[in-house]
C-alpha cells in the first residue's frame, strides 16, 4: 500500500510545525488517545495535539489475522517486571504498546465486554454514571456489528444480540470458520451446568457465550488508527506528532496544568525538550504503564517516592501507580485421543486440508486462516465451580487486607482495597458474574484466566532514573485466595473434560497431569506456570475517592490540580472480567463527552447521562475564538439483561457444509451434506460431511 503510506505520512506533523499552544493536548496516541482526539476535534474551533512516543506501523501484515499473536517488540515498551515472589520469583514480560493506535494495533482482536455487574461495581465504588447502563451507550457508539457468513452461523449456532451494537467506527464480526470440535465442547458445557448465553455483550458475560473479533468482513483488523484517526486525519485542527515522549506536565502556581514538556525519541535524556501549552485541558492517555509515570514525573504521586526521586511535590496522591491489576493465567492441556478432523493440527499435518485452507484464504479471505485465536468464552461464576464458595468469601471478608497488599501501600490504598473487597465479595458469591475465563475453540489445551484477582501491584518511577523504565510489580498471587480460585478452575476444567459428550474426543490430561490432585500439588503447579498478565493491565490511576487511593474523580479530573484528566485504561478501578479493548473504547468515548461537557460549562456530573448532542456556534474576534455551545442531554434507561436473540440454528432439512457435523448420538441437526460431500461416521457420537 505505498500510496496509502504516503498519505498517512503526510497527515503527521513534524516538530518544527507545531503550534505553541493547543486547546487540548492528548498524551499518547494509542487506543484511547485516538478516540478522544477524534471526538474533541469534531469541533473545528478547538485545536487538538496528540503526542505519541511510537510511530505508525505501516506494515499491512499488522492488519492480518496472524498479527493477533505476533506481539512485535518494535510496537511495545519492552519492560520486564521485578521477580514475582509468589510465583517462584520469575520476572514476567510486560505488555504495553508503543505505536500509533496503541494496544488496538497489536492486540489479539478478541472483542468482548464484561458483565453488567463488573461495571456496576465501578459505580458502587463512588463513580456515578460509570455503571453498565451508563457505559452501554458508549459501547454502542464505538461499534458496529458486521453480519457474519450465514453458513458458519447456522453450522455452529452462533448467537448474538443486535441491540448490543450501534453505528460506531469499530467493526466487530465473526470469522467464516470454527473448528468442528467446538460443537462438542458447547454440549459439554451444558452437561456440567454452564448454560449458553445469547450474547455476552449485553451485560450477560457469564456462563458460556460466543464473542466476536474486531475485524471487518475480510478479517482485517478494525482498530483505533484506521477507524478513529485515518478518517479524520485531514482535519486542520488535529495534529499528530509521533516519535516524541511527554516527559512531564508543568503547572502554574495555582496548580493548573499549563503545558507538556516533550522530547524526541532516541535523544539523550537531559537533552533538549520543547514545551507546548494547553489552553483548555491536558488528557493523559499514555496507558497503564506510562500514565502513572508521567504523573509521578510531574510531581503527582506518593510523596515519599517523589522526594526520593527529587521531584518537587505538586499533589501527594498515593494512588498514582498503585492498584495495578491484570488477569493472571495458567495453561491447562488435554490431548484428544479421538480428535475429529479437521482440527488445528490438520493445518500442519494434512496437506490436502492445508492446501484447501490456503486456497480459501487467498481466493476469498475465508476458511481456517481467517480465524484468529477463537470466538467462545466460558466465564465462570465462583458458585458454578466451587460448592464451598461461601467459605472462600467469608475468609476473604475476614482477611487483614494490609497483610496481602504490596508493602508500599499506605492507609489510603488499603482503604481503597477494602472498598473494592466489599463489592468483590458480592461478585464472588454472584451467579451472574465470572471469576475465571476459559477460552475454547475446539482444542483440548487452553488458558485458565483469573478474572477477579485479589492481589494488587504497582508501577513506580525509578527514583534514580526518572526517565528510565519504571519498576513494575504485578504482585501476582500475593493474596493466597487467588490460588484457591485457580485450583477450583483446574478441577472444574477436569469435570468438563469428563462430561459425557466430551468422551467422543477421548480427552487425556497432559498438564497439570492427572496424578496431581492435592491442593498443594496444584499450588506448586500454579507457582511454576502462572503468568502475571494477559495484556489487560489497568487501574494505575484509578477512578476512586481520593481518600481511598483514587487519582481521578468520576469526571476523570486528577485530584488536587485543574486542567488535567485521564482518559485511558489506567482509570479503571476494578478490572472487569473481559479482554479490555472494547471497554477502553467505551471509556474513551465517555471521556470525550465529559471533556466536551465541561468545556461547554457543564460539569458533566449527570449520573445516567447517555447521549449528549451539541450544537455549536462560533464567533471569531481579533485575538481569540469564543464558542457558545448548547448542550442537550438525553437520559435513557437501559435494561441490563436483554433476551433479544439473533439465533440461527441447524434445521433438520438444511444441507450441512463440508467439515460440519451431520450425525452421531444426541445429534438433532441436519444429516444432509452439501453436494460433493457425504456424511461419514467418525465415531458413534460424531459423523461429519467430508
Ligand atoms: C499485546 C497485547 C495484546 C492484547 N490483546 C487483547 C485482545 O485480544 N483483546 C482485548 O480486548 N484487549 C487486548 N489487549 C488489551 C487492549 O488492547 C488494551 O487494554 C488497550 O489497547 C489499552 O488502551 P489505552 O489507550 O489505555 O493504552 P494504549 O493503547 O497502550 O496507548 C498508550 C499510548 O501512549 C503512548 N505513550 C506512552 N507513554 C507516552 C509518553 N510519555 N509520551 C507520549 N506517548 C506515550 C504509547 O506509545 C501508546 O501508544 C491487548 C494488549 C496488548 C498490549
TrEMBL record:
Required cofactor(s): FAD
Residue span, CBM1 domain: 654-690
Residue sites binding FAD per the record: 99, 246
Active site feature: 536 (proton donor), 579 (proton acceptor)
Gene Ontology, cellular component aspect: extracellular region
GO molecular function terms listed in the Swiss-Prot or TrEMBL record: cellulose binding; flavin adenine dinucleotide binding; oxidoreductase activity, acting on CH-OH group of donors
Keywords from the UniProt entry: FAD, Flavoprotein, Signal
InterPro entries: CBD, CBD_sf, FAD/NAD-bd_sf, GMC_OxRdtase, GMC_OxRdtase_N, GMC_OxRtase_C
Record field: compositional bias (Low complexity): 605-651
Superkingdom of origin: Eukaryota
BP terms from Gene Ontology: carbohydrate metabolic process; secondary metabolite biosynthetic process
Residue ranges, annotated region (Disordered): 600-652
UniProt record similarity statement: Belongs to the GMC oxidoreductase family.
Protein name per its UniProtKB record: CBM1 domain-containing protein
Organism whose genome encodes this protein: Drechslerella stenobrocha 248
Lineage: Eukaryota, Fungi, Dikarya, Ascomycota, Pezizomycotina
